[in-house]
């Protein structure tokens, strides 16, 4: 009985430690975590979170230059558009992410411009703005895609004049190829290197192997909506939720892309340049 009580106490302590490590880091924490405290916990993949009680606004003055910096975009739910049958329309099916601890975008930055109608234009300029992710459908099919916000130009509703907890940004962005030009398929074929055709297979452009032989670097287009729900007026920090839709990988032009939908949270800071 004495050992059983000790075992129960030990398990309770372990559970509390694991629970604490799984929570997202606070954006207002005064004690930064060390590398050893973060390593192999998944915390590096989580965006800082503002308190639910944080409500405020950030006014932007005309003629001044502003930037959103330190933007972190963390997907928490994944959906893949799946064709059902000829009688039913295609619908989004929840997917399970297979990529560990490398699904969030971080240190994304961009300019904020106050337009003449009072709307705000966010133009992404750089940062760690892409991540290769793979999700698995309930039937076992796996869909790789490149989550990114490269070249994002997102516009808010007019009449804002600043950032508030009702500001929504919507815009399009580029989705580069999941594979690079130096990637080789199992037959040694690539876009910039490797064989032009597979050995012992016909190389004619009219053959059924043409799509596999002719590699391409496809650039698709995605759409994202960023909904600001929390603002700390004293620090310039903002947070909220997002929803994005973009195409999946085409295997360098040999496969038809499917639509991917992502939902999650984001964090950023507004700074005057």
UniProtKB/TrEMBL annotation:
It comes from Shackletoniella antarctica. Keywords: Membrane, Photosynthesis, Photosystem II, Signal, Thylakoid. PANTHER family: OXYGEN-EVOLVING ENHANCER PROTEIN 1-2, CHLOROPLASTIC. PROSITE patterns: PROKAR_LIPOPROTEIN. It is a peripheral membrane protein. GO terms for biological process: photosystem II assembly; photosystem II stabilization. Residues 1-20 form the signal peptide. InterPro entries: OMP/PagP_B-barrel (IPR011250), PsbO (IPR002628). Pfam families: MSP (PF01716). This is Photosystem II extrinsic protein O. It is found in: Cellular thylakoid membrane. The lineage of its organism: Bacteria, Bacillati, Cyanobacteriota, Cyanophyceae, Oculatellales.
């Amino acid at each position: 009985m004495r050992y059983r009580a000790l075992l129960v106490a030990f398990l309770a302590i372990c559970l509390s430690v694991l629970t604490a490590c799984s929570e997202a880091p606070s954006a207002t924490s005064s004690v930064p975590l060390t590398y050893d405290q973060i390593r192999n916990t998944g915390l590096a993949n989580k965006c800082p979170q503002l308190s639910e009680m944080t409500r405020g606004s950030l006014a932007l003055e005309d003629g001044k230059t502003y930037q959103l910096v330190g933007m972190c975009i963390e997907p928490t739910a994944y959906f893949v558009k799946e064709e059902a049958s000829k009688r039913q329309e295609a619908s989004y099916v929840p997917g399970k992410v297979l990529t560990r601890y490398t699904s969030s975008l971080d240190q994304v930055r961009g300019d904020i411009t106050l337009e003449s109608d009072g709307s705000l234009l966010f133009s992404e300029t750089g940062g760690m703005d892409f991540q290769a992710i793979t999700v698995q459908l309930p039937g076992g099919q796996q869909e790789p895609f490149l989550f990114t916000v490269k070249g994002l130009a997102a516009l808010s509703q007019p009449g804002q004049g600043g950032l508030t907890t009702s500001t929504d940004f919507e815009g399009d962005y580029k989705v580069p190829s999941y594979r690079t030009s130096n990637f080789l398929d199992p037959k040694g074929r690539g876009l910039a290197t490797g064989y032009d055709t597979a050995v012992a297979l016909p190389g004619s452009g009219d053959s059924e192997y043409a799509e596999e032989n002719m590699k391409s670097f496809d650039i698709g287009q995605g759409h994202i909506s960023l909904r600001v729900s929390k603002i700390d007026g004293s620090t310039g920090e903002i947070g909220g939720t997002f929803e994005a839709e973009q195409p999946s990988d085409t295997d360098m032009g040999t496969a038809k892309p499917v639509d991917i939908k992502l939902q999650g949270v984001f964090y950023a800071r507004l700074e005057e340049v």
